[in-house]
Amino acid sequence: MTAVDRAIIEAVVLGTVGGLISVQIVLRRLPFFTLAMTHATFPGVVLAAIAGINLYAGGGLFGVLIVLGILALSRRREQDTTTAIGVMLSAGFALGVVLLSAQSGFSKDLSAYTVGQIFTVGDSDLVAVAVVGVLVVALLGVAGRQLTFRAFDPGGYAAAGYRPTVIDIALLLTVEAVIVVAVPAVGAILAVTILVAPAATARLWTHRIPAITAVAVLTGSTGGLIGVLVSNSYDVAAGGAITVVTGALFTLSLAVTTARRARVSRRRSGSRGSVPPLPDRHRGTRRDVPPALPCIGHMSEKRKLLSIRRDR
Amino acid sequence: MTGFGVRAAAELIFTGATCGSLGVQVVLRRLAFFTETLGHVAFLGIVAATIVGSDIKLGAAVAAAGAVALSGRGRIASGQPGRQSGILVSGALALGVVLISSRQGFSKDLTAALVGSPLTVTTGDIVVAGIVAACVVAVLAAVHKELLLAAFDPHVTQAFGYPARLIDTGLLSLLAVTVVTAAPAIGATLPLALLVGPSATALLWTRRVVPATVLGGLLAAGSAAAGLVLSLHYRLAASAASAILCGALFLLTLAAVRLGHLMAVFTRRQAAGPI
């Protein structure tokens, strides 16, 4: 197996896994949180590389710590979640840079960890991606229905007797696992694309979750495949190429679906062209969009009720 | 300290003061995600300018102006980041990486664009940073009342007849100018730390906006200077050291505040005695 074969397998499997988990990330509106998780994983990977331990173990452990840190910071209502995530995000990235800069000749290493080197992945990397893929499929198979329930109706989920915290932590740990195996391929700061773009693209085309999942998997794997091929032919960074192609699929879908919707609405308002369409007052409140969540695991429903009562 | 050290100190202190005082507005309006987007788009501009061979600030400014024009019309000020900006944030970065990787030996350029290099700033950079710092402080002082009203209640702002949209766009443009000015010294990814960390810390210390703005500026300038000193002593990346200090400041203050809350609850319980 040549390096290109390995890179193609890695990119396609990673795109598939990212596509599967991205559905939950988009449903829960966690893109910014995911961005923070990727940046927070970066210093862990650097530390692991400096200490000479397994990259996956080091990065994963550190990422889990940071996730718990953000959750702890955002539990109180007086502290704005966006600010807490922003601080953790930039400080985490800066920590990675400082750790690397303590070594001499650091700019080469920095680019390897930030944007990845997919052409140097080994068999163990492929195995790691496959194992995480099995993990993701297992999570979605066992708890997919509950995850969707939690995303669309957090109050109902808690009332039905489920424990929101448990499933939130399970979801976040799985996302962290995907981020960690994505680092050698596309790097820490580009990983967020393969974790968000596939489902965001699919969501433009359809509203049904099985269909979204299918389109997301297709988008992710296609983006990976084309990205590696482009990188191989034109000699540009593979991690960048994969994410640019995946982002381009989203942009293309956005353009096509926007144009289609404009055409449909023009046809509807149709013959009486002089009457402007009524303002769409209910934009963004469509039923199939889950309610905006301040943050995952923000506060248990019971505590929220308690705090409201206390305010009165 | 030698010539380049003095230049780096001046640049970092100007940048820190600008970021820290403007950062209070970023925290009040929850613009952290937008700031990150701006930084990544500016990164794309820096890379394009590096390849073409023009001034990197020019490239960054053009790109950031595009980002403000794109997102300023949307619901950016509502604080709820959409999927589009999620894609923009990573897409711009990825495109920049692809562009820069087409050059030979690209990792040095990539590092400079990502985290900046304060030790190589020119006198021109410092002059621009000083002018921008003065402008930001002047604008914050001149339209303080309007900015505050628009941050807390956009509807009332409109009802009073203030140009709410102009205020929003103006603030976003000011933010873009700040990020672009900071780019040579602290790169495209680290302005967020200087913008959010010290000002969030200041808002934990005081809930009043004017003292928080002054305090934010001082804290950011102080962290930047301390980061530079650390970097010269221990051979670390100067910009990243400053960013870490900003983050650490916030986390420590937050921990202290939490501890204070806990202590207050505890002593109140003790004073109340058993019921």
Automatic annotation (TrEMBL), chain A:
InterPro entries: ABC_BtuC-like (IPR037294), ABC_TroCD (IPR001626). It comes from the Bacteria. Residues 264-292 are annotated as: Disordered. It is found in: Cell membrane; Membrane. Pfam families: ABC-3 (PF00950). It is a multi-pass membrane protein. Belongs to the ABC-3 integral membrane protein family. PANTHER family: ABC-TRANSPORTER METAL-BINDING PROTEIN (PTHR30477), METAL ABC TRANSPORTER PERMEASE (PTHR30477:SF19). This is Metal ABC transporter permease. It comes from Actinoallomurus oryzae.
From TrEMBL, chain B:
The keyword Translocase does not apply. It is a multi-pass membrane protein. InterPro entries: ABC_BtuC-like, ABC_TroCD. Its main location: membrane. Gene3D superfamilies: ABC transporter involved in vitamin B12 uptake, BtuC (1.10.3470.10). The chain crosses the membrane at residues 6-28, 40-70, 82-100, 112-143, 171-197, 209-230, 236-259. The keyword GTP-binding does not apply. This is Metal ABC transporter permease. The lineage of its organism: Bacteria, Bacillati, Actinomycetota, Actinomycetes, Streptosporangiales.
